Please model this.
Amino acid sequence: MKDIDILHQPPAEKLELNRKLVQARSLSDSSWRVLRSQWSKFQQWAKALGHPMLPISPETLCDYMTHLAESGIKTAGLDSARWAIDQIHRFKEMERPSSSEQVRLHLKGLKRLMLEQRPEQVRINRKQPITIDDIRRMHFQEGIIGIRDKALLLTGFATGMRRSELAALKKDDIQSTEFGYRITIWKSKTNQEGLEEKVDLLKATRGKNLDWCPVKALEELLEAVPGDAVFQSMNGKGVSVRFSGKHLSGYSIACIVKKVSNSTDSDTSQFAGHSLRAGCATYLLDKEVSPAAVQKQMRHKSFDTTQQYNRGETARALAGAY
Model:
């Protein structure tokens, strides 16, 4: 319902409608897209078999989960479908079907069977982290495109910012400090309420690192780019190429990472947009930076998430034990 319609309701009804709108805004736009897609798929399946739409019984949900598993979906897809169905029930103030012990056990059994029958499809294929050595081997174009791409990769690697955060970055969000730059992030995947988050972009201080200093690369871009958007798309071709004044999209950033990575002789098939963020966490932990400091820089809500990137911790701890 549109906001203008709410204004014409009696006070009690307006309050109720506002409450529903506020609850709806508890989900991000991307979450709403997933919810609508998953709910539409369930509706098609339920309609074909004559199942009632709402409320959904635990038995019906179990049957639907089995249908999805047989269709070749991954375990993450099962969780996404279950989440969407639960959300619809929550907004309708109905009991969520997945709260049933029957559904919990059914999902657990399905996932185990899926892992046994097609392990290569079920296992999560994590993108390979980009290292600073990978970036040093990359070839960047001459001119403003190369200036932008180099600053983009070095900033993404050194800060651990997500693609969406890099895409939304504005000049006003960058503050100079004695260590380099402090960047304010106003909205992120885990911060949909606009709470202020900050990450540090530090100057390189030693040897060959100076040629690949992220602060120096970003300074060069800031001097060249017009307007407020930091990482911009381009207009024109060849010698007439110029900044458009518009922010890059997250998808465009992923394409740039793939394009520049392919300029090396290394196997870059597993590189993607997330590889910069993964590379930051992996690099800092390999350098034995305090995991707590890494968690703060990466803005992980859970320490367990940070530890997923701490691949060398056990080997370092066991070194010399045998």
In short: The CA atoms of residues 147 and 221 lie 6 Å apart. The domain at 132-313 is CATH 1.10.443.10 (hpI Integrase; Chain A). The radius of gyration is 24 Å. DSSP finds 16 helices and five strands in the chain.
